[in-house]
Amino acid sequence: MSLLPPEATEFIGFVAPHEVSESRAPRGPAIEPDYLRLLAQAHERGGFDRVLVAFYATAPDPLLIAAEIATVTERIGLMIAHRTGFTAPTVAARQFATLDRLTGGRVAIHAISGGDDRDLARDGDHLTKDERYARTREFLDILRLAWTSETPFDYAGAHYRIEAGFSEVKPVKAIPIYFGGASPAALAVAGRHADTYALWGESQAQVRELIGRVRAAAAPHGRSPRFSLSLRPILAETEERAWARAEAILAETRRLRAARGLGPAPAPQNEGSRRLLAAAAQGSRLDERLYTAIAAETGASGNSTALVGTPEQVAEALLDYHDLGVRTFLIRGFDPLEDAIQYGRDLLPAFKDRLARRGGTAEAA
User: Fold this and answer.
1) Model confidence over 108-166: pLDDT tens digits?
2) What is the largest distance, in Å, between two alpha-carbon atoms of the chain?
3) How far is CA 149 from the centre of its chain?
4) Own/partner pairs, 98-102, CB within 8 angstroms, 24+ separation
5) What is the structure's pLDDT at 214?
6) Which of 57, 110, 114 is nearest to 82 (CA)?
């Protein structure tokens, strides 16, 4: 799976090696192979194009988890979160190219610079945010050189100096780079390197504004990135039941946080979380279906806004974002396995049917 045509629509799910959710109490070991297999296969059978494997400082290694996912599936793409700066870029380039070859071209990278100083400190990284994004720019420069250069190359930057760098193994095709971050430093990197720019589940007005800024940052490089939106759909057979389910998830999230002794969430350090909280400050229900209360409860520490309704209603809400230029939808549930099955059975077909009726491209190439 190489770079997608501009108008192709892509759905990305989320696969963790054990059950994890704001409204599910942690249980079991960090890696549960049977659960990992079931969740990965549920996404493949449901028609997802890729699955995200996340990164945080205490998590199992996402590259190895992605390799395991590849062994229990046949076609689904792997969007592997990689925190730039901890592995030498030449080494990382060979790792990803190797996995891409072994899986027949299923690899993509979600390059993350890190938005929380506390999490980065767990791995010994104490650079400032702007320094991290500058390092990411150099990292991605070198990654692309290693994947494409037919002869040894040199690179001299503030963070990396490479002499006669080269990789014998090349990707099957161009490995897509997904990238997020809304600060000025992040947008500068996005304009240079993002094949797909990733937004969290913001209001339509916020999405429109940020897409405009990313396009402006990419224009001087002659680039036109795709756009991804991350949401947590909450579905039910009626709208009333869907909203009741959303409130029940919020109540359970609050209960679990209290049981763990968690007080009010600390102020976030990353711009993406701040933007979600700014949306939540406008109300718990925006644009008819965007539910922000769980983001407000958790300090928007991750992808935590939802679209609420029947599958058909949420499909229409996704089409509203499609009209703004979004072509990739990263969706995961608060009940991870059950929701993945429901998305594949009900939501993806509803969206693709409506898009096809409008003459859009409903399938990834």
Assistant:
1) 999 998 767 787 888 788 888 899 999 999 999 999 999 999 999 999 999 999 999 99
2) 62
3) 28
4) 98/169, 99/63, 99/66, 99/67, 99/70, 100/171, 100/172, 100/175, 101/169, 101/171, 101/172, 102/67, 102/70
5) 98
6) 110
Q: Which residue has the tokens 């679990």?
A: 256
CA dihedral over 120, 96, 7, 185, signed as positive or negative: positive
Cβ neighbours of residue 186 closer than 8 Å, sequence gap 6 or more:
113, 133, 179, 180, 271
- pLDDT of 5 reads 79
Task: Provide the 3-class DSSP secondary structure of residue 187.
Answer: helix
User: Per the structure block, which two tokens stand in for 108?
Assistant: 């993509």
- Residues with Cβ within 8 Å of 222's Cβ and at least 6 positions away in sequence, in order, are none
Exposed/middle/buried for 318, CB within 10 Å: 0-12, 13-18, 19+?
Answer: buried
Q: Where are the domains of the chain?
A: 10-357
pLDDT given for residue 4 in this prediction: 82
Could you tell me the two tokens for 188? 């500068």
Contact between residue 46 and residue 333 where contact means Cβ atoms under 8 Å apart: no
In Å, how far are 189, 233, 269 from 193, measured between CA atoms? Answer: 6, 29, 23
The listed CATH number (3.30.470.10, 3.40.1400.10, 3.20.20.30, 3.90.320.10) that belongs to domain 10-357: 3.20.20.30
User: Could you say which residues of the chain have pLDDT below 70?
Assistant: 1-2, 115, 360-365
